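A common beginner's mistake is to predict each chain separately and then try to dock the pieces by hand. The better habit, illustrated here, is to supply every component at once so that their relative placement is modeled jointly.
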Amino acid sequence: MPTTKTPACKVRFEPSGLKTEAPRGTSILEAARLAGVYLTSICGGDGYCGKCKVVVDDGDVEAPPNVLLTQQETRAGTVLACQARIMSDLVVTVPKSHLLEAGQILIDSDAHRFSELPTADLGKAAFPYEPLVQKVYLEMAAPSETDQLADHERLYMAIRRRLDVPLMQTGYRIIQGLPAILTQSNYKVTAVVGQRGGTAEVVDLEPGDRSRCNYAVAVDVGTTTVVAHLLDLATGATLGAEATYNSQMHFGEDYIRRIIYAEQNDAFEELQRCIVGDVNELIQALAVRHNVELACITAVICSGNTAMIHFLLNLDPRRIRRAPYIPTAAWIPPLRAAEAGIRINKRGLLYTLPAVGAYVGSDIVAGVLATRLYEARDLSLLIDIGTNGEVVLGSRQWMVCASSSAGPAFEGSGVKHGMRAAPGAIERLSLGPGGEFRYQTIGGEPPRGLCGSGLLDTLATLLEAGIIDRTGRFTGDRNGRVREGPDGPELVLVPARDSHPAIAITQADIANLVRSKAGVHAAIQVLMESTNTRPEQLAALYVAGGFGNYLDVPKAILVGMLPDIPVERIRFVGNTSIAGAKMAILSRLALEKAEEIAARMTYFDLMNHPHYMDEFIRSNFLPHTDLARFPSAQKRLGRRAAT
Amino acid sequence: MPTTKTPACKVRFEPSGLKTEAPRGTSILEAARLAGVYLTSICGGDGYCGKCKVVVDDGDVEAPPNVLLTQQETRAGTVLACQARIMSDLVVTVPKSHLLEAGQILIDSDAHRFSELPTADLGKAAFPYEPLVQKVYLEMAAPSETDQLADHERLYMAIRRRLDVPLMQTGYRIIQGLPAILTQSNYKVTAVVGQRGGTAEVVDLEPGDRSRCNYAVAVDVGTTTVVAHLLDLATGATLGAEATYNSQMHFGEDYIRRIIYAEQNDAFEELQRCIVGDVNELIQALAVRHNVELACITAVICSGNTAMIHFLLNLDPRRIRRAPYIPTAAWIPPLRAAEAGIRINKRGLLYTLPAVGAYVGSDIVAGVLATRLYEARDLSLLIDIGTNGEVVLGSRQWMVCASSSAGPAFEGSGVKHGMRAAPGAIERLSLGPGGEFRYQTIGGEPPRGLCGSGLLDTLATLLEAGIIDRTGRFTGDRNGRVREGPDGPELVLVPARDSHPAIAITQADIANLVRSKAGVHAAIQVLMESTNTRPEQLAALYVAGGFGNYLDVPKAILVGMLPDIPVERIRFVGNTSIAGAKMAILSRLALEKAEEIAARMTYFDLMNHPHYMDEFIRSNFLPHTDLARFPSAQKRLGRRAAT
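With all components supplied together, the output reads:
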């Protein structure tokens, strides 16, 4: 049977100028992926989030009509990239608002913009310095007639004189190569010794003294962003950090969508290639910038939510989204990095911090390690608000944890003008003396939308100003900014200027945000109630992750996201996922502690918890049905009511 | 440049009828190797041992004249296979005397033909039954909403409930395949759990209950012979045994020659292929005979001298033969068998018993384990007389060991009519009442030569009869059988009959044999003197290996090979190399004990020992210069002198 080859169409994306060729009939979203152009896509290509709008400047596409497109947009050539099929060569403009740009990815653990509280002690001390992969320079005596020890045992004895490693392993190829390297180097070699599940492995051997050339990369594999730090294992110093967006975002903004996409398209390997590619790019960038050879990077350590770690290692993630919600592995033994496609030293090791379960990943365990919550005498609460909202409550006595169904509303998903923390995002919003909205954008650029902290500020501001009531419904606006929009009632926060459309928040947006904060709060509440913990017992509340560092605490309390405890007990701890990963790569005992922590944490499955739904419903108010739980919010709202 | 292809010649070997094609110019020895025809070759193809004589029946060869060939032989078409180059198609007859035949390879540890002493307790008890690879059938609870343990941890917990394994590892591919196998089998699987250097590895997983299908092969990798036993790991029973000649013999009879050959011809991989092929053939034969799938063989354990283990694993053996005589590895970690080319379960493990050093291999450590010399209250001596002669002296207090430069004279090498223990070999020889020689051949076949025990008998008989003196020199023979042969004085033991030439022993043969026994005895002597051990302190003398089981003890004492201790203290313990290997595969603690034994044994390098040469020279008499050390021999020789 003769086959007809589908003709390839050339597609150019503006303003980047990036080009690709794609077979006729391919979606523009797919072509963007091929060209390396990042497009926002929340629904994973199902055509109902409306985030992937692009403008076709030239060429033919087949695009079905879509309610998410206005007539005006359709006339201007706007299509949904996921729905539009390429029929000829194209020129496509990607609107600025939909590009993923390098923004405020939280790459470090010591940033605390809105907090005066000390976080400097985070993850310091506590563990002796003993990296998971060490390089030891060995000057061995050459064999003689009075010292006929075999090469292999000679090496072991020399290593044992330097390191406390009762059990040792060596790969077959390394043993085979021993005589050559030992005799050529006159028995002066550097042994690369890695921890591997209770035993030490002679990962590699190098002639001469290479002990100073030992680096590792710690990676926080987030659903949205991937952050990597380069560490000098010879000194323990952090040399630099890099971050990128997780290129799996093409397949859906949250990991559940990605699992569905992979399952429907048998694309698990493709998803692995995406994230492994991101990690490799970060490693490569760090290596180049800091003039480090890849061969000198002997270890990578990863933390992240359980689904992301599954994608990274191509472990089957399908049952993470189906009852009874089972990961393939919560604890993953050290692997050779090359086995997963990660490019460092070709025999270098890949470590993964342990997870608690399907919905409480190694990033949270890393957070518990970094905050030292696990060893505190008094109770603390750790909240990680990213794409999901995980909560840990406990002390050295016990620890409980849960994952809320928060959803990514505070990351801009499901919110009309929501966007990620990128230049032009409104990150602060308040009401001026004349009732006008004042805002501050990231990078001081013209406003393009609202990121998480901006959305929280909006919610609190509207509540405090009485523009919305405690159910989140618009009650009226003295300045008449509430109007009937295409998606129902909306409040204009920034009027239209020049080519920029107005930025508004809709009634539906507010409902989404309230649901999202309610999820986090209900999770906290269930853990506290189940353990009979009263708010005043909390010695510390650690806020970690995604937008934690940019959060206005009193406002977060006001809307009922955080429990109403004294502000001085609340600490912004930044990216504790990477902080914990770095602790573990620098200390074998820290990794062992992480394993102990994961084993000690009791997971509460909120979906099956008898009180969660009630608590969630009660939390669907601002701040809560029970105002007595939020005395400071009550005071503030009372003050407003009094004015 | 045009290349001219060397024409291929067809070569047929009789009487086997095996055929091959070989390029013109190839040696007949090489062609025999290609055809799978075993030819004796002691010198490794250098043309000076004269063992590889064959008769060219048809076709042209280029064969240089050689002093080792008589005119008569040359006329009959006899050539040295290693020297004769194939110039056309050939028919070659391999004389019966030079074929390697399945003979008395010592495949079991319970054979003791000349001893009434109990050896039944050899290697029994002592260690708890805990095979290095176990199969455990696990019926796990399927995950539920109240039991959300990940697959990996669920498996570990289930294994730990059955086995005491504090540290566990699992290969990446096994973890990746977990969800499929667990869900498909409804969480009822058989885990194959192998010991790997202090940790346990989940080697493989099988759906359902396969716990009864677990087999291992123990292999004694000898220089001359390779012996394999098939064990049922579910019961500990030995199912059968197979033996074959080490096909590396084409490259030289002793391992030093093979190392030289490999070094000169860069043939290390070829030598590995030979021995790995032999091991695979044995495994295959055992599997077929006992109806066991290769996939059910989960482990192989090997013991052998250090050079053979190096060849097997293609570890560099070159410095074994050069001062200061260093192995690449004396202790070798468990490998995946497939990594070395050994065909069992594709993830099955290959264990190697530990060696002491270059010249005291894991076969000797296995012998110490099997005889339990290491835990005896009183001193014992273990002598393994194979191609080399290793000696161990000690008790639970201390152990010393040495390897003599015995050489393979008692295996027929360097002895005119010497041959291996094969049908037609004279294994017993004595003097009849009329002064005539009486002999017994293996298999009752017409005599073709003398094997080790026959050679020892000859030496003792000639000494006792006064035909040789205590220096080994012919003094005369009443029957006039001493004659001047082509190689100097010789004594005809079996006159020529029909087509069979006479079987004689030459003055040079006797000198070789005396040197060989002197090597063993001097080694014993040095160990005993160095440790201040008197013969009467020896509670037991274990004779193991090659021809140990067929040795006439009083005669071995008479010629001064064994020390003169009461005969009842001497035990034939057979192939202790395989007995020890079997103990180790059946008990993790036995393997650990072997490692402890290897570490505890102090090696005496005889070549650098100040007394060895003196002792060797003194031992070059029959039995020794100092007759007082051999009271029973003195008595026997005195009796002869009196008659």
